[in-house]
Design a protein that fits this description.
three-stranded antiparallel beta sheet, 149 residues, Immunoglobulin-like, 11 strands
Length: 149
């Protein structure tokens, strides 16, 4: 399995949400993706709504929680993960900078939302996505600017 997911992303230190760039997976026909957030909730598909009426509702559980499972054909899973600007990460408390998200990608013979399978991911198919802070100062600098007449 070949997985393309950045290891980290920088966010404004004041940001309470951030979108994860497109995720790509090559290899298996069917896929289970387990996403666990540390201090964050993950928003899939329609943003700011708990998606309870997806056309493939039985293939997603945990939208807008810190534990999201998505399963189905690899193309369907990627379509959902990358829809509407990608996964949105929302800080449960405070800001998103300094938080992390664990992704486990598991090849399955048929779609399943069984959470115990998440622990069976091969080490190379488990990734941690870190949200780092931008190196910007938030202090206000006051100075004089001479104006010419």
């Amino acid at each position: 399995m070949v997985i393309h997911l950045p290891a980290s992303l920088r966010a404004d230190p004041r940001a309470q949400s951030i979108s994860i760039p497109a995720i790509s997976v090559e290899g298996p026909e069917n896929l289970l993706v387990c996403i666990n957030g540390s201090g964050v909730n993950i928003d899939l598909y329609r943003k700011d709504f708990v998606d309870t009426r997806l056309a493939i509702d039985e293939l997603v559980t945990g939208d807008r929680t810190n534990n999201l499972l998505v399963t189905g054909t690899t193309s369907d899973v990627l379509a959902l993960l990358n829809s509407a600007g990608g996964l949105r990460v929302l800080a449960a408390i405070g800001k998103v900078a300094g938080k992390s998200i664990d992704f486990s990608f598991i090849s399955v013979s048929e779609p399943t939302l069984e959470p115990t399978i998440c622990s069976e991911a091969l080490p190379g198919n488990v990734m941690t996505f870190n949200i780092k802070t931008l190196k910007i100062g938030l202090g206000m600098v006051k100075g004089t600017i001479p104006l010419k007449k």
